[in-house]
Specification:
alpha+beta
């Protein structure tokens, strides 16, 4: 990575890559809002007629009540998609413009909104037991990069679990993956403190973690987290006092205290639940002059990843030539 890019202020990259496009983007925003309002005005009378027709059909022909409601729901969803599409298209363009600038500013960074099945795998998170059991997953806003010889990826994830005919969201947040120069001999899991319930509680809730408890000599850390590994000495050689201090600062930086982590083979994994919307700070309802704040916010998110890598590489086992 070119360190001088970090030394360059984000404002300079923004002024060079985004600012010249602001007037054009603002015109596009106003066109999108106008198109949205026009479509909403068009759908208003149609919606009133549709609701009336649905009510009449339900009252007059009870046999067709279910079919009528399904058709009405489908038409309503289609109308909503059509009405909001101009705004969504503008927001997608706005997000891509800002992320392109962020990638250029940071270097060795790529972004994609759509995430395919081969772009990011969450199976390893399930194996490491730092996400709950789930039935279906939805991923978006994937950032991939390389820093100090380590590849990393950050993605927004929503996991749902089906029970009978109902579905429940069991995780919504960020998943971070960092490749490391060396693999751990035995997996290490850092999970939330189970308040005395031990492995029975983790097993019942789907969070069963293999390995033995590892005592970390840090009262504040022990009060919040449990560490499990079959190699206690190896775990403590990685989870050093400095690592612990930095790990305890992550809830403040990431705006969430629901952080789990694991060392699995040659990867450091982290799940962060219930985080503020990562890349959802873009809107067609706000002037594009506010994009500067969004740009700096995303740059800071990437800085957090780099800080985590810096901390991991301070460990002698990952030092160059180790």
């Amino acid at each position: 990575m070119n360190e001088s890019r970090w030394q360059d202020r984000p404002e300079r990259t923004f002024e060079r890559m985004v600012a010249p496009m602001l007037s054009t983007m603002e015109a596009s925003r106003l066109e999108a809002v106008a198109a949205y309002q026009k479509r909403l005005f068009t759908c208003g009378p149609v919606a009133v007629i549709g609701i009336g027709a649905t009510g009449w059909a339900t009252w007059s022909t009870p046999f067709f009540t279910g079919i009528t409601l399904v058709v009405a729901f489908a038409l309503g969803f289609g109308a909503w998609f059509w009405v909001t599409r101009p705004k969504k298209q503008f927001v997608d363009q706005q997000r891509q413009t800002v992320l392109d600038a962020v990638c250029a500013h940071v270097g060795d960074l790529t972004y994609s909104y759509a995430v395919g099945s081969t772009d990011f795998s969450i199976d390893v998170y399930r194996t490491a037991k730092i996400i709950p059991s789930y039935s279906t997953s939805s991923l978006e806003d994937l950032i991939k990069g390389r820093y100090r010889g380590c590849n990393f990826a950050l993605v927004e994830a929503e996991l749902t679990r089906k029970t009978g005919k109902s579905s429940t969201t069991v995780f919504q947040g960020l998943l971070l993956e960092i490749s490391l120069p060396q693999a751990v001999k035995s997996p290490i899991s850092i999970v939330r403190d189970q308040s005395g319930w031990g492995t029975l509680a983790k097993s019942i809730s789907g969070w069963f973690v293999p390995g033995d408890p590892v005592t970390v000599p840090h009262a504040a850390f022990e009060a919040k987290y449990d560490v499990y590994s079959k190699d206690a000495a190896g775990a403590l050689s990685i989870i050093t006092p400095e690592f612990v201090e930095n790990f305890l600062e992550l809830p403040h930086v990431l705006k969430s205290d629901k952080i789990l982590a694991a060392f699995h083979e040659n990867m450091f994994l982290m799940s962060v639940a219930d985080t503020p919307a990562f890349l959802d700070g873009f809107s067609a309802d706000s002037p594009v002059t506010e994009l500067h704040g969004s740009f700096e916010r995303v740059v800071e998110e990437v800085r957090v990843i780099h800080r985590v890598i810096d901390q991991l590489l301070k460990n002698d086992r990952y030092a160059p030539g180790a």
